[in-house]
Write a structure and sequence with these properties.
Helix content is 58%, strand content 0%. The chain is mostly helical. The chain has a single domain, classed as Up-down Bundle (Four Helix Bundle (Hemerythrin (Met), subunit A)). The N terminus is likely disordered.
Length: 146
Amino acid sequence: MLLSPKAEPNFFDPADFYAFASWLNLAKPSSSSQALRRTIVGRAYYAALICARDATRSSTSGGSGHKNVVTALKQKNHTAGSKLDELRLKRQKADYDSEILTPREVDIALRSALVVLQALGKFVDNTPPYKSDYLDASHFLSAPAT
């Protein structure tokens, strides 16, 4: 198992991206929304990628930066590195392909991210970070003032 760098209290923990993605998947305000599915995959990927980058002290800059993190992680933990690579490809599909992303693919992406985060020694808090009605449009849209 890899050890993750100590989280500083004044810094964002990228594993929180996973908690948010997981919560979005559970909330499913519109289960058929491709935008939602693609957002979940992206946040899950970036949680795993940034945590892996920090743990392996890799760089994500340059054209092959993300692949460099995968390679570095595979050297430390082949299974976690392979899951991160699968997740990288799924994130690319979510961001760039117009092909439909299925709920099963989203679930697999979340599981892959969790495997990576656990291999990095990250504790993932699955407590919903927001109230269940967080995405209710009535919180954002109000009647015009008369």
